[in-house]
Structures are given as C-alpha cells and as structure tokens.
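Chapter summary example.
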Amino acid sequence: MKKLKLLALILSAVLVLSVCPQCFAEQVYTPGTYTAEASGNNGAVSVSVTFSENAITDVVVGAHSETAGISDPAIERLPKAIVENKSLAVDAVSGATNTSNAILSAVEACVLLAGGDVEALKNAAVEEKENDSVQQLSCDIVVVGGGLSGLCAAAAATEMGTSVICVEKLAVTGGSAQGSLGGFMACEIPENAEYHVTTNTFDSLDQALDTWIGLQDVSIVESKYPDRERLSKALVECMHTFDWLSSYGAEFVAYADDAVHEIPIIQAVVPGTEGTPIFRLLNQMKDKVIENGAQVLLETPATDLIMDGDKVVGVIAKGPEGTFEITGKKVILACGGFSDSEELLKQYIPSVREFHSFSVPGHTGDGLKMAVKAGAAVFEDAWVNPGWVAPSNKFFAVNPNAAVFQEVMTPFDFSESSYHRLMVDMSGSRFLNEAEHYALQNIEFVKNDANWPFWAVYDGLNETAAAVAEDGLQTGTVVKGDTLEEAAKAAGIDPEAFIATVEKYNAICAKGEDDEFGKPASYLDKPIGSEGPYYLVQMVNSGADTLGGVKTSDNREVLREDGSIIDGLYAVGAMTNKYYYNQLYFSGSSLTFCTIDGRIAGQHAAEAVLGK
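The structure predicted for these 612 residues follows.
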C-alpha cells in the first residue's frame, strides 16, 4: 500500500511538471542592474531592473514622457507587482494600457540581458484576489464617471452639502480631459462682460450664435442641431463657469485663437510643476470633492442602474473590493461617449467606415447602454468628436508609434505637422485640402466613401519613421514601392492616374498656389521626390470621442422619447453633447461644455435632494 501511495505521488508530480514546468524551474540570472526602453503612449519608457542570482529584486521606471496622472498608477503599481509575484503575467492597469505594456516589454528586455527565461516569467502564476462580497452603500447623489464633467457635477453637489459617491472605471480620475491640450473655448459677449479675459469679443449673443451655427453648415447631414436655445444658454454661462473654476485654483488667460473658426481659446493656468495645468486643475477638484466628504471609488465600473419602477434609485458597480449596490436619490451619468465601442459606432454612426480613437481608454458606451435600458431617448444623428485623421487601427496594433503618421502638431502651430503631405483616394486622385481643419477632413472622408481607402503619400522618411512604416507593411495598411508605379500597384491604385496626380501636385507646389482645393502656400513646400522608396499609409477617421448620447432637459435630466423625464437620472458631458454640434467640432469646446453640464446637473440634483 505504501508503495502504491508513493507511486501515486511520483506520478502526480510528473503530471504537474509536464503541465507547468516553469512552476518548478528556478530562474538563473547574471546579477546586476540592466536598463531597457520600450514604446509607451507618448514615446520611450526607460526601465531599470535589478537581479540577484535567482530573482528580480527591484524594478524602477526611469525617463519617460507619459501623461502625468494617466500613467501614474501603472508606474507605481506594475514594478511592485512584478517583484512581489515573480512574474510578468501581471495585469495592465486600466486606463494606462500602453504605459503598462511598455513597462512589461522593457522588463522582458532586461530579463533577456540578464540571461533569464522570459517565457517562464510570462507563464508564472499570479495569485488572483477575487472579491465576491456585496456591499450596500447609500448617499444623496451617485456620480458615474470621474472625468471633467463628473468632477464638476460632484464638486457642485458637495458644495451645497449633499453626500456624493463617485465611481470611476479607470485607475485614475480626470478622463479625456487629462489627455487634452487644456484650452477652453470661450465666448465673451455683453451678457458675461464681467468675466472677460481676452479682447476677442462678440458684439452680441446673436452674433456669436450665428457664427457658431453658420460654421456648422459644412456638415453633410441635415440636423436640428446645434440647438440654438441650449447653445445660447451655454455661451452666456461659459465665462461665469470659468470664474467658478477659479475657486479650484485656475486662472484663465488668453491662450490662442482658432484661426480656422475665429473662436477664442483661453488657458487655465494652475500653479505647480507636476503635469499639465489641466492635470493640476483636475487633481485639485478631486481633492476638494473628497475634502467636502465625497467618496471616490476607482477601478469600479458601474454595470447597471438600480430601478424602483420607472425611477432610478442607484447603481451597481464592481471593483477590487467587490460589488457595490449604491442607492442614491439622484444618479448623474458622466461616462463619456462610445468611441471605443465598434458595436455602438456601427449602430449609431454607420457612415464612418473605421474610427481610430486616441483618447484616454474607457469610452465604451457603458452609460449610454444603461440609460437606454432605463428608457432614454438617443440622438438620431450622432457623429464623431473628430481629431487629426490617423493610420488604420491595424497599423497601431503592430506598432503604437504609428502616430508618427498622424497629424499631431504643436498646439496651433502646423509648421511641423503632416498637413504638408499629399493624400489620394483609390482612384489615385486628390480629394481634399490636406491642410484644412481636421474636423473638415473627417467630413471629407465620409463624403468620398465610394473611393475608400485613402492613402497619405510619403517619401524621404527619416530612419525612425521608415522603421515604423516597415512594421506597417505586414498589415496591408501600409504599402511600399521603389517607384511611384510600384507603390500604386501595391495599393491597388491605377499607376497612371496616381503618377499624374503626383505630377500635378508637384506643379502646384512649385507654383505655390492650389487652385483646386485651396491648400495654403505654406503647406505646399514638400513636393513628392523623384527617388524612392515611397510609402503609402492608409488613413481613417479619428478623434477623441463621440458627439451624441442621450437627450436631456435644460437641467440635464435624461428624457424619454415622449419628452418626459426619467426620474432620478441625469447625463452630462459626452453623454449628451450633441445639442452643441452638427458635425463640426471647435477646439476647446468639449472642456467648456463638460464643465457647464457638470455644474448645472450637480447643482440641480443637489437642490432637488435638499428640496430647494
């Protein structure tokens, strides 16, 4: 009997080793500290790893250009998790995926330098700490989402003395605003003259409204939006709201003018050295909200609304500490749009063939789905919140540095942008002014959909950009040719038509005048060269989020199709921003309207709770 038991134990051990040999294989390293880099969200992330003979003893993230706030949780938590778990199978931090992956990739490189087994570390088990507890919480107002609109709603509500619980799905508050340039669209009119900070004023509210609405005429769909009444109230309110933000440490100064739309931009100047001014403002708002008694739960996405008949009375959310059933007298949805949901983009914006979202992760339409389930009316003509047109998502999947071919630029300085390039469609023809405002380029893409895909033409790439382009070749969304004819054939474009377009474009550059599309002479300084290699990079619609969501009252209460209010439910920010736009976006306007929406909803919800 003892022999049988011993045999069984031996067989069990052999079975375990055959299934998971790395579980029992001790790592062997050449002791020391090694440093490597990997590409993060904004560039290279340097990581130093210290090894003993058989373990990783320290991981330190060094020089990087990741966005402060967004990347902080990954930089703080991943190194500790790698050391504690003796594994590279640790989870990326929600909302900082690119930074997380960069840290893990750099550590992998260091492991190789130290002579270790990367695959064994990637397969090493990490203890799962599932928490299946259910906690009951209650408050006056539940805010779902900790971006700018959510923080403004929470701030306004706590200022009035109501209790607030804010649930945020990511590991950090701030949302898309943290990745913005931090400029706010301003509208200085006689009605808010007391708060003006620039000299770029409109003579009247009607003039401002006519300018704004008139510029929307470039849209290619008929729409009753922007809503003149909702917009007029927001334009009057904006300067008052900026003054309100000053109580959180912001001083607004003249920043720049949007040269295309003549809408002034102002900058929030916030004392401090950590991160950008908008990051500091968002952090100060969060700190003040907590100081006022609010509870902020991070990495805790809301999954459902709690209903009492037709009334919304709370939310269900799940986080690291388990499931929360949070009851409240009012619920404010500040969840962002749906730019990261392929399903919802196809459902609500089918005219956009492909969309590259470059905003902070998390815009998956969670709030929209919950509101619709509760009976909310949805805008019938949603659109993208446009940005600089970008390479295909397939290209980004193989190399995050595909952004080198995006129209990224120094704020309001197009001199180093990709606006100088030539762009053609599948007929081999130019179809737009490559230097026109990015919102207009997104519209032109949809107008010319019959001739999709669209290709940006590059030659004379430097070594770094050429290496990125070479990575893209495997996706089919980047093609290459030593001659123009070869490049055209690789893209499936008629070579003769393409070569004729290049010759015409070069003649326009030499002349310094674009009679066909009106591209300014300052962007006609880069004709296509006579020597290859030539790269054609496929371009798609791109942006930070969506323009759409659910319909709301002036107080931001969510409406049903019949116009009745869903009791207890509000929506703010990208959850209900279509009132301000048709298809043209204005620089800085999202930050402005998110602030206004959040403040209005927070105040109204608090007044309703307090019986005012």
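To summarize the output: The mean pLDDT is 89.
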